[in-house]
Amino acid sequence: MKRSSKWIFEILLAVIALAFLSPVYIMVVNSFKNRAELYENALALPSTLSFQYYSKAMEKMSYLTAFGNSLFVTVVSVVIVVVLASMTAWMLVRTDNKLSKVIFLILVSTMLIPFQTLMMPLMQVMDWIRSNLHIPMLNTHGGLIYMNVGFHASMAVFLYHGFIKSVPIALEEAATLDGCSKFGVFWRIVFPMLKTITITIAILDVIAIWNDYLLPSLTLSDKGLRTIPLSTFYFFGEFTIVWNLAMAGLTLTIIPVVIFYFFAQKYIIKGIAAGAVK
Amino acid sequence: MSKRKDKAWYALFTVPLLFVFTTVVIIPFVIGIGYSFVKWDGIPANPKVFVGFDNFVQLFQDDRFIASSWNTVQFTVLSLIAVNVFGLLLSLLVTTKLRVSNAARTLFFMPNLIGGLILGYIWQFIFTDAFKLIGQKTGLGSIFFNWLLDPQFALYAMVIVFTWQMAGYTMIIYIAGIQGIPDDMIEAAKVDGANMWQRLTRIIFPLLMPSFTICFFLTLSGAFKMFDVNLSLTKGGPNNSTEMFAMNIFNEIFGYGHYGLGQAKAIVFFLVVAILTLTQVAITKRKEVQM
């Protein structure tokens, strides 16, 4: 490419990228404006940098509680998915019999079921467990985590399965000969080798679970248990929309995501590509 | 090692996950099929009356369900085109060796992380207020007005938000595909005098078929099942004109308390999603070429 045309391309791409982010710009600038200023020009920069709407939105959304809830539910769900799915996938690959094939086939084929097909009967099942077995599955974080694990299990097993098939078995056999139990072989030898695919799965599930609205909305009714998407929904539902306050609230919900993206960006982009190709 | 011991290990490693999976996915799926044959209002004390295929007959006479199907089809087709055209364009842009490429790639992907519900709210403001303002300032009031008040434009608004969310995701997959194409293949074509367009259509696109398969699958199933953007951007309005499949099912069950009918819709929904995505994958897979 010629030098001058290269510069034109540089500028063109930069402009496109900035235009792409303009909705975020509009959100942030209006979170600082008072009502009059907002309606005067929604696109202009704010005249003053006042954080009053942020503190108000924070209070109305119970932001810190919601953030803590989301963090807890997401982290615990993802850790359990990773632990259980990697173990299951490894056994399914290394025990090459009919049962393994059937289990794998069932797991994969259920990935086609949309959540809407399961949501009502799922609530019935959980309600049945609550009233007959007295295990609190509804309106608890534990129940939500349990359901998250169930829904993300098949995808994780599928990705691990594909990855483990390409891992040579020699190391595992050597460790077994040395007297290592299956448990030891898996956690000491195999699991460390699954690092790349584990990161991919963790990232995909963090994004999905952090942003999920529908399942938490069906299971959680207590205000104190709400996750960020849930509290955002109620925040928008409870008041007639005051846009500057709303924009401050939305900015708040995006900040953790941006920070996460800033640190894990390299892994996220690699992980998405790797996850898709499988 | 003894056979029995092996079996015990097998169970120890697989049963925990399979137990959770069975209670969360398999059992609800099976009893969900059962629910689609009964009439029930969701109140435990009230009887579940077996009505056979009545629910399935009824849902095909439900105008609002038919309308939501048509909305979903329109939305899905438009999204499929828009998401992939933009995703592909962005991927071609950022794989040129420019200094801003990496930063641009990072920015293009970001909306995907934000989550549909939040994106819908941000854009609600843009379509209602920012658009109005741009219309007034530029005099282009026929393009920039509150799209969410017009049935057809509200649907386009959803396509825009969904595209904004998904284009970066497909971009990442297309980038992976483009980087998998050997440089010497492109160089050879250049030496043979192929222009940019010929290189794209004769070499790059055919070799990208696996990426197309994945991206089409992701956008097709994503658009078809879309719920949260629908909820936060338009709530299905104006006048149910943007109510999609997923929202119609949700409203039928939890809004109107028609548990049986809603579940029958949910089963039909599953069948349509399964048939549609499997057909698409089969078609695009057949077009994949071996290098």
From TrEMBL, chain A:
An example GO biological process term is: transmembrane transport
The UniProt keyword set, sorted, is: Cell membrane, Membrane, Transmembrane, Transmembrane helix, Transport
Question: What are the ABC transmembrane type-1 domain coordinates in residue numbering?
Answer: 67-264
Tell me the InterPro entries matching this sequence.
MetI-like (IPR000515), MetI-like_sf (IPR035906)
- What is the membrane topology listed in the Swiss-Prot or TrEMBL record? Multi-pass membrane protein
Q: Where are the transmembrane segments?
A: 7-28, 71-93, 102-123, 143-164, 185-210, 241-263
Checking SUPFAM superfamilies in the record gives: MetI-like
A single GO CC term for this protein reads: plasma membrane
Q: Where does it reside? A: Cell membrane
UniProt lists the family membership as follows: Belongs to the binding-protein-dependent transport system permease family.
Q: Which PANTHER family does this chain map to? A: ABC TRANSPORTER PERMEASE PROTEIN MG189-RELATED, ABC TRANSPORTER PERMEASE PROTEIN MG189-RELATED-RELATED
Task: Please identify the protein, giving its name as recorded.
Answer: Carbohydrate ABC transporter permease
Organism source for this protein?
Answer: Cohnella herbarum
UniProtKB/TrEMBL annotation, chain B:
Q: Which residues cross the membrane?
A: 12-38, 73-94, 106-126, 153-176, 203-224, 266-283
This protein's species is Cohnella herbarum
Major place of residence? membrane
InterPro entries in alphabetical order: ABC_transporter_permease, MetI-like, MetI-like_sf
| Bilayer disposition of the protein | Multi-pass membrane protein
By sequence similarity, the record places it as follows: Belongs to the binding-protein-dependent transport system permease family.
- Protein name (Swiss-Prot/TrEMBL): Sugar ABC transporter permease
Q: Which CDD domains match?
A: TM_PBP2
Q: Name one GO biological process term.
A: transmembrane transport
Read off the Pfam families from this record: BPD_transp_1
Superkingdom to which the source organism belongs? Bacteria
ABC transmembrane type-1 domain mapped to chain residues = 69-280
For this UniProt record, give its keywords in alphabetical order, as a comma-separated list: Cell membrane, Membrane, Transmembrane, Transmembrane helix, Transport
